[in-house]
Amino acid sequence: MKRYIILVLILVLMCICTTYAKNQDAFINALRNCTPYNASGDMVINGVATSTTKQMQGWNNGKCTYKETLIFNGQQITTVCRFSKPQIQEIVSVADAFDITQKYTEEDIDLSSTEAVKNNPVAKVLGKYLQDPDVCTISGMD
Question: How far apart are the C-alpha atoms of 129 and 79, rounded to whole Å?
Fold first, then answer.
């Protein structure tokens, strides 16, 4: 079960990072201001066809609500994160610094494997919160 949870966390991180890589400004600006944002798409991650839908749902009780639904192997997993302002500031700061670094290195963001994603600074900061049940909840795992 623990291995399955880790796999799901990595899949969620890969989907978030893929959205970040493709729509950096839109995603980060939506998070920065907790304004509405919607994105969806299909991708193959480690040979598994995956579909994802992401939504920034705005402020609710002083927390910015982000929801992602991931479908792979016929299973639907929903992640809901409720970020405080300081948490948003941390995530956005890491993303901004990474974006500046990427502009100077002129390298593409590597999302080719779970190892590459785990070494991505944006994935690391998001992973910290994905593993914190006070911030993010993951449902739909059997």
Answer: 11
Listed in sequence order, the DSSP H helices in 23-139 are 24-33, 85-105, 114-118, 121-130
Assign residue 9 a region (left: φ > 0; alpha: ψ between -120 and 50; beta: otherwise).
alpha
**Bridge partner list, 139:** 78
Task: Place 116 in a pLDDT band, splitting at 50, 70 and 90.
Answer: low
d(CA 130, CA 121): 14
- CA–CA distance, 122 with 90 (Å, rounded to integer): 10
Side-chain-side CA neighbours of 116 within 13 Å: the count stands at: 11
What is this structure's pTM? 0.77
Residues 6+ apart with CB under 8 A from 113: 46
Cα distances (angstroms) measured from residue 114 to each of 10, 12, 65, 103, 110: 7, 11, 26, 23, 10
Mean pLDDT of 53-66: 94
How far is residue 8 from each of residues 20, 27, 77, 123, 142, measured CA to CA in Å? 18, 21, 8, 14, 11
Give dist(CA 27, CA 31) in Å, integer.
6
